Amino acid sequence: MxxxxxxxxxxxxxxxxxxxxxLDTTAETVLRxxxxxxxxxxxxxxxxxPFGAVGMVEGLGFYPGVFWSPLLAATEFFGGIMVAIGxxxxxxxxxxxxxxxxxxxxxxxxxxxxxxxxxxxxxWAAIFLFxxxxxxxxxxxxxxxxxxx
Length: 149
Hints:
Layout: H1 17-48, H2 54-59, H3 65-85, H4 89-110, H5 114-134, H6 141-145
């Protein structure tokens, strides 16, 4: 039987440990890759027109927009690629988390939508917080090169 690390609670059905433990790293990798790919998809339009969000970012109080708009595009597009493949996972995830926290503020407060309007951004910010703290795992470029930020 597979031993469960003592820092983790024991399953109610011990036989399930053989299922959970091997899938632990894989499930984390799937979450990282999906989050990264979706961030790339979200940032694709912005990277194709890096100055297209100038008005939006200035509307949020980020001046000058010609600086913040391309930074937003790069964070979403290139940061998403880095998260997906697991290279510089912590700083890329931290940057993505900051972007998502701004969208929480925008939807929740500026637009007055409250938690209901910001719930997707809250969830995404929490996912990127996890990877900003956790970093990547053994199934990443960081692991292959033997270094993490």
